[in-house]
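Thought: the user asked what E3 ubiquitin-protein ligase parkin looks like in 3D. I have the sequence; next I should run the structure tool and report back without guessing.
Action: structure_tool
Action Input:
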Amino acid sequence: ILKGPSCWDDVLIPNRIGGVCQSQGCNGNVAEFYFKCGAHPTADSETSVALNLVTTNSRCITCITCTDIRSPVLVFQCVHRHVICLDCFHLYCVTMLNDRQFIHDPELGYSLPCVAGCPGSLIKELHHFRILGEEQYNRYQRYGAEECVLQMGGVLCPTPGCGAGLLPEPGLRRILCEPGNGIGCGSVFCRECKEEFHEGECNSLLSPQGAVAQKGFVVDEHAAMQARWEEASRETIKKTTKPCPNCNIPVEKNGGCMHMKCPRPQCKFEWCWNCGLEWNRTCMGDHWFD
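Observation:
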């Protein structure tokens, strides 16, 4: 959409806000708004899901990774509200998928935190990962299911082309990938080394030595500082608002001259933005438009 709704009329009156439909083959250019109770969990069967972290970049915040100003963007739920453009979010997710670096949370499921690694920033609405497209989203779901099996103490069949999730009895070393319902492949393997089942100890040569985990997605510290959604809002407020000298409520200056009038009905004090004094002829003659 060209801009986010700012009042009830924007969402209740048709044709108020324009935009460009992202669905292939659709030429729609007017936004329609529908409401969904936030207390109800989102189901996979729902045709329309609110991606609450995706928004128009109305504050012109730079992306935390590419440092470009793009729109729309995804705003992470961390303290700093870091911003990432959708192209970089796609790359971030695919990179973390390739490295199996997604986090399996018992309550949320298979998710990712803010790209800067901020604590408590896991994405709660997992439908945001549909931004990846059908192929990558299917891979995300498969990896999530596999991680769930592993978290439950299960194993994955190592046979190429199978990968079935199995939940054998604790301590059982000989694992049968039992065929049935078009899932298992019938292979028998060792729970410890994932090779064909054998008696005796596993071959230690099969264990990788000195493996080093690599982080495939790096964020520049300066870029992270610039990509703060709320920080930009605070800076904007600091630059464009001053307290009324009479009643002290914040008054925003949006262009125009230095002659200010308090919008509070009980006040309506007229004052000078530049010097903070009650509006007078000196202000008018010396710095009306400075």
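Thought: the tool returned a structure. Summarizing for the user.
Final Answer: Structure for E3 ubiquitin-protein ligase parkin predicted. The first strand starts at residue 54 and ends at 55. The helical segments are 8-12, 86-98, 134-151, 221-226, 229-240, 281-287.
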